[in-house]
Amino acid sequence: MRIAVFMALAAALCGCSLNRIAARQTGDIIRRGMPVYLEDGDEQTARETLLSSVKLTEAVLQSDPQNSGILETLAQGYCGYAFMFAEDADPKRASLFYKRGEEFSRRILAARGIIAPEGDFLKKPLRAADAPAAFWNGFCRAGYAQLNLDDTDAIADISRIDALLDAVLEADPSYYYNGAHALKGALLAARPPMFGGDPAQARRHFEAALSGPGADFLPNKFAYAKTYAVRVQDAELFDRLLKEVLDAYDRLPQQRLANTVAKTKARKLLEKKDDLF
Predict the structure, then answer these.
(1) Is residue 24 part of a domain?
(2) Residue 101: is its pLDDT beyond 70?
(3) Which of 24, 105, 142, 167 could, after both became Cys, cross-link 75 (CB 3.0–4.6 A)?
(4) Burial class of residue 71 in the structure, from the number of CB atoms within 10 Å of its CB (0-12 exposed, 13-18 middle, 19+ buried)
(5) What integer pLDDT is reported at residue 6 of this predicted model?
(6) What 8-state DSSP symbol labels residue 125?
(7) Which domain holds residue 207?
(8) Is the pLDDT at 199 greater than 90, yes or no?
(9) Is residue 250 part of a domain?
(10) pTM
(11) How confident is the model at residue 139 (pLDDT cuts 50, 70, 90)?
(12) CB contact at 8 A, 227 and 202
């Protein structure tokens, strides 16, 4: 009987191990294949297929639930899809995607002792290796907050996001084309001063976001126009930034999809100019 139980346990453990190995290999394949979507400028194809790939990745996670690489891919996938394809057409659905992305990135950060389960930043110095998960957690939470300005919990969460992004800027300020600078700028510009807004500081963050490779990552300029230029009612800056987005050459082929989407969003934002100024 003892021998039989031992053999059954060994088989089960072996099966779990094999499943985990297979999941990691599959997760690596999906993660390495993600650039295929990002390099493709066909918005319709990405809109129709990207979410299916994200769901497949989520299925793979079931066999290796602590795999930080898979969790990070899911956070980026859900929140990237929400920003590019869902928030303008269906804010409620986009909010769900942002929450899903936040959940996956939070699992990484909570396991590393960086944030508490409820999202409070524990003020632990970040390593550069922690910056991706922290950035996507902030991105997802910020995306949810800007779609749910009537939710007091979402608004209260912004101060926690600020602290997390400050830590990312200390650990790896250039991550994702200076993305933490762009996020900080958007959060500072979107809020009135009585709630922590600071247009002057927002502009400094956006200018930092447009340095180096960040200058060719068009969502940075789009966010600058949509948040800061509108907040301070600078119509000339608004026009200049969006024109630069629309006239930009394909200098960042590895982010062709994001840049193509930024152009589409810029056209739609320009159509609303009379309502914004």
Answers:
(1) no
(2) yes
(3) 105
(4) buried
(5) 44
(6) P
(7) 181-277
(8) yes
(9) yes
(10) 0.87
(11) very high
(12) yes
